[in-house]
Amino acid sequence: ELGEFNHYMQKEMFEQPQALGNTLEMLSGAGQLHPGIFGADAQGVFEQVDSVLILACGTSSYAGMTAKYWIEQVAGIPCNVEIASEYRYRVSVPNPNQLVVVISQSGETADTLAALQHAKALGHPHTLAICNVPESAIVRETALRFITRAGPEIGVASTKAFTTQLAALFLLTLLLAKGKQRLLEADEKDYLDELRHLPIAVEKVLALEPSIQAWSQQFANKHHALFLGRGRHFPVALEGALKLKEISYIHAEAYPAGELKHGPLALVDAEMPVVVVAPNDEMLEKLKANMQEVSARGGQLYVFADGDSKVRSTDGVKVLAMPEHYGLLSPVLHVVALQLLSYHVALVKGTDVDKPRNLAKSVTVE
Ligand code: F6R
């Protein structure tokens, strides 16, 4: 079943172009975007709701955090993301005009399912699932749903499920924006073209594997790593750190880079590699200043930039450029690079990549 690959995780990373193409199949050829992809009643709901609440666990929650940036920027409605196991046990203020979105690869995660049931019990009528398993418990309990077509994900560390969730969430963003009359026709066309091109763009990131592998040796003998990102790439940094923790057992933390001097800078020395997600976006200049702070303390920087980010490799600063500059969808490309990094670090360490210790693929107990 593994074919040319050594692990399911590797196979699943390399299946991402196909998984994205399948998930976005409705856009192939001259296909257009229609709210019906989320269910027959979706259009009315998207016009009616005044905000979004996203509930999920782990990697799926980071997809939700990325979507928060998209939804508030493009659709112009408030979006909050909450860890399902927190939401289900706290006293919250329900808003019946809110769209409750649950994100889950398996559709069986106990905390996410319970959070959904909790939201419904509080009187939230509008629920939507983004899920990779059509007949799962979570899908059966929501009014609207979108099934990602990642195919079965066997590796415990989520990869293709995450990027297809992002694609689904971007479709949701566009449809919410349309429902709110916030999407110009020309912008919609550009976004749809970018989505259609995404599989090819991801393919090019996967081709960076040898260069990323070359970095892995320098992480494998470290005990800690720090991941930095800003804006819509902060969730990517979180996901990069989670991947590294899970499969290489290296302690990794992610911070929005602006928080460095509020604490974590104290940890920085030559023994802690600092990974930076540095696309050429509106936060790049700020991020460069943050990188300076790290360099000045002897920190070793591993920078995932864009071709046009103009970050130079020097002593203590290694730079790898993404093949394409990708605007709002850039998190989808950058996360693939971080998946490859964690995979290769784990290989050097010799851990069980597909079945990391203490973890289960589907967490059906709380
Ligand atoms: C990390 C990972 C987990 C899951 C989490 C939620 O690689 O796979 O953090 O994302 O357990 O699982 P689902 O998406 O099935 O609800």
UniProtKB/TrEMBL annotation:
Active site per UniProt: K361 (for fru-6p isomerization activity)
Domain SIS stretches: 42-182, 215-356
Location in or out of the cell: Cytoplasm
A molecular function GO annotation: transaminase activity
Alphabetized UniProt keyword annotations: Aminotransferase, Cytoplasm, Glutamine amidotransferase, Repeat, Transferase
Coiled coil: none
EC number from the UniProt entry: 2.6.1.16
Cytoplasm found in the keyword field: yes
Enzymatic reactions: D-fructose 6-phosphate + L-glutamine = D-glucosamine 6-phosphate + L-glutamate
Domain of life: Bacteria
Subunit structure as annotated in this protein's UniProt entry: Homodimer.
Function, as annotated: Catalyzes the first step in hexosamine metabolism, converting fructose-6P into glucosamine-6P using glutamine as a nitrogen source.
UniProt name for this protein: Glutamine--fructose-6-phosphate aminotransferase [isomerizing]
Species this protein is from: Vreelandella lutescens
Organism taxonomic ancestry: Bacteria, Pseudomonadati, Pseudomonadota, Gammaproteobacteria, Oceanospirillales
Region of the whole protein represented: 248 to 613 of 613
